[in-house]
Amino acid sequence: MSVTVLHLGAQKRYETYNPHTPFSDAAEKIYLPMDTPVSEVLAAGKNADFIIADAVAKVPGELIRGLPHLKMIHSEGVAFNSFDWEEAARLGVYVCNCRGANKAAVAEQAILLMLACLRNAGEGDRAVREGRQIEVKERMMVEGFAELGDCTVGLVGFGAIAKETAKRLAAFDCKVVYYARHQASAEEESLCGATYLPLDELLAQSDIVSLHVPVTNETTGMVDARFLAQMKETAWLINTARGEIVDNEALAAAITGGVIAGAGIDTLAPEPVQADHPLVNLPAPYGDRVFFSPHIGGVTSTMFRKAHRLIWENIEKTARGERPDNVCNGL
Q: How far apart are CA 23 and CA 20, in angstroms?
């Protein structure tokens, strides 16, 4: 059973995490950077049966229509909003993701950002390097700062990553509340130590609001001026989900205007982030109210090993005529 797999992304990473099963090793592989023009992709990958794409790669309808043998497009991560999944569904092409593979990694990143915000990690690191350690320490002791266990943490969304985050927060003795379109079962809530609240109540009560929703038409830009105005002035926003969920200008205005305390951010839109991004260029002293990480929450080596095993298992299933796991476009 021979298949041709087109990879859109970093060749070295795909080769590193290939699970090296007899099936994956036997497949013909075509590697292209994710920003390769569609015309060049079609020329090089015209016989492709499958696409494995970086989670932020663009897979437009033009490309999907031009690959007559295509059976499945598989995100290397969880996101698939840059794929034309509706056109893929129309053509009978599965769109799949690696839902769940990164849940532990992103949960850890969310907690890292929470702690970094509460402890002012960015300014603290810089102060020590600049010989201002005592100055910053004295100021922080006078101003005071909370322990994570003192905080009510509100999770917006309650999928796999949010549930893993809730379980880890239990070790800090946090009060954890969540909002989702559908309330979880009592058993799930008990297992995660989380309590359901309507969104407006969650925002009003939480010291930390952590985003865990996918990018959809409903969630794009949901963190706007109105959303932020419902949060406490002392509250922190954490985003390890997707940058598109947040209105950048609204968040910048909320931080500089004292509407919220600040933010811990692993993912910004657009990506790659440019130096003129409004959140990257906040004036002093507000720049120290935002702590960034470079969208690494879900990219641990453990996650990639899990993801690539799942991807190749799904390719093999589909090649046998079976329905793959984690179908995202309703087929």
A: 8
